[in-house]
Amino acid sequence: MIKVRPFIEAEKCIGCGRCVSVCPVKPCVIEMKDVDGVVRKAEIVHPEVCDLGKACERACPTGAFSFKD
């Protein structure tokens, strides 16, 4: 069985945190991480608990969030 999983294109992520704020799952599937101590980027940290509701994908203003198998 193939499981669809959340995916973030780091180069498109602007670090706004909208995906984290709308994630209904606790612990959140996504966390904001510092990259090189300067730029914040969203990172998938708990893909196994994702409910596949895609609220994060809809909230992303740059289209960085998607779901892949």
What can you tell me about this protein's structure?
- This protein has one domain (5-68): Alpha-Beta Plaits.
- 14% of the residues lie in helices and 29% in strands.
- It contains 2 helices and 4 strands.
- Strands 1-4 form a two-stranded antiparallel sheet. A two-stranded antiparallel ribbon has the order 2-3.
- A hairpin with a 3-residue loop joins strand 2 (30-35) and strand 3 (39-44).
- It is globular, with a radius of gyration of 11 Å.
- Low confidence ranges: none
Largest sheet: 2 strands, antiparallel
Structural category: alpha+beta
Number of strands: 4
The quaternary structure here is single chain
* C-alpha geometry: globular
Strand proportion: 25-35%
Rg over C-alpha atoms, rounded to the nearest angstrom: 11 Å
How many helical stretches?
A: 2
Order of strands across the main sheet:
1-4
Label the CATH architecture: 2-Layer Sandwich
Tags for this model:
two-stranded antiparallel sheet; globular; 69 residues
Topology at a glance:
Blueprint: E1 5-8, H1 18-22, E2 30-35, E3 39-44, H2 55-59, E4 65-68
Antiparallel strand pairs: 1-4, 2-3
Short description:
With about 70 residues, the protein is α+β, with helices and mostly antiparallel strands.
